[in-house]
Design a protein that fits this description.
Length: about 375
């Protein structure tokens, strides 16, 4: 099924409020939930499509990126994989409507980790700024950040040595308690176990039963060659440790690139401007140009070079995927602000010899582009 515009998927206008976005997604989720449509592949795809749309449009930052750049602006931001995993991340929009889901889909409509179930830890974000050259050729950067690490005393279980966990007596391990409201049975998070489905008999004294402790960590991050501004590097399993001894989340390193004094980048090509004199432009010359990499290249200036002419040096641009872009050199003809007496005499003589036109006609735009 072709990827559709997120606003079209939810059936809303671009200026829809957060409440309207939430209501539209809730309606589609109820309609296409796989538990309500067992074996219906199309319904499952519609459910995942609606969930992805809500994940982007329900978040102000992601929505702004999508509005400005389309799918390219949110590439990799939407949840992937099993719909049940994605659905768990959106349970907050249903709140007390969980009973409605149970009415439509049965007791299995709402997923929980169950008694003693470990969950994956939170993903973390880290922003770095790197020099232009490092972004082009790649580098390694050491970063420091604080995360929740598994408590070494209880090894992440949250329980004092020799003790364990038991099923919550209030919710019987479901993590929810139910109340009748009109025609519906409404579920809410169990206040006794906070939705975990179990309670710790004797909490660990060092972590208070959370199973985690704050830890300052240093790691080396490899920045690949050719990385673009705003891109991210994912470091698996370097996020927060999971509750109940669950696996850690990931660390997302977002990259900002400092501007360079002399070079600019477009895709895999690099651009720089080099000044040349009037005589070098008219007669031609060999000039030496320093590349971003630190090499010195001998560049031939052809006779009669116009101001602004671009020269292309292949394989001196940005490396990526086993290939490299080009270096484009823009030649800027420098007109001297002050002339010596002899220099002025020679230029006046040149003007007389060449018979310069004092009534020039406009140059066609096509010739200017060349």
């Amino acid at each position: 099924m072709a990827k559709r515009d997120y606003y079209e998927v939810l059936g809303i206008q671009k200026n829809a409020s957060k409440d309207e976005i939430k209501k539209a997604y809730r309606k589609l989720a109820i309609q296409y939930h796989p538990d309500k449509n067992p074996g219906n592949r199309e319904a499952e795809e519609r459910f995942k499509e609606a969930t992805e749309a809500y994940e982007i449009l329900g978040d102000d930052q992601k929505k702004a990126a999508y509005d400005q750049f389309g799918f390219a602006g949110v590439d990799g931001m939407a949840g992937q994989g099993d719909f049940s995993q994605t659905f768990r991340g959106f349970e907050d929009i249903f709140g007390d409507f969980s009973g409605i889901f149970d009415t439509f889909f049965g007791a299995g409509g709402r997923r929980s980790s169950g008694a003693g179930g470990a969950r994956q830890g939170s993903n973390l974000r880290y922003d770095i700024e790197i020099p232009f050259k490092d972004a082009v050729f790649g580098t390694k950067v050491e970063i420091q950040y604080t995360k929740n690490d598994a408590c070494p005393t209880c090894k992440g279980t949250g329980a004092e040595g020799g003790s364990g966990k038991k099923v919550c007596p209030v919710c019987q391990g479901s993590g929810q308690v139910r109340h009748s409201q009109g025609f519906f049975s409404v579920a809410s998070t169990c206040h006794n176990c906070h939705g975990e489905g179990y309670i710790i008999e004797k909490p660990c004294r060092d972590c208070g039963g959370s199973g985690t402790q704050r830890k300052r960590q240093k790691i080396m991050v490899t920045i690949p060659p050719g990385v673009e501004n705003g891109k991210r590097v994912v470091i698996p399993r370097q996020g927060d440790a999971g509750p109940g001894g669950g696996p850690p989340g990931d660390l997302y390193v977002f990259i900002r690139i400092k501007a360079h004094e002399f070079f600019e980048r477009q895709d895999l090509d690099l651009y720089c401007a080099v000044p040349i004199s009037i005589t070098q432009a008219a007669l031609g010359a060999d000039v030496h140009v320093n590349t971003l990499e630190g090499k010195t290249l001998k560049v031939k200036i052809p006779p009669g070079t116009a101001n602004g002419k671009l020269l292309r040096i292949r394989d001196e641009g940005v490396p990526s995927g086993g290939r490299r872009g080009s270096l484009w050199i823009k030649l800027m003809v420098q007109v001297p602000a002050r002339l010596s007496k002899r220099g002025r005499e020679l230029l006046e003589e040149f003007s007389r010899i060449e018979g310069e036109n004092d009534s020039p006609k406009p140059i066609p735009l096509s010739e200017m582009a060349e």
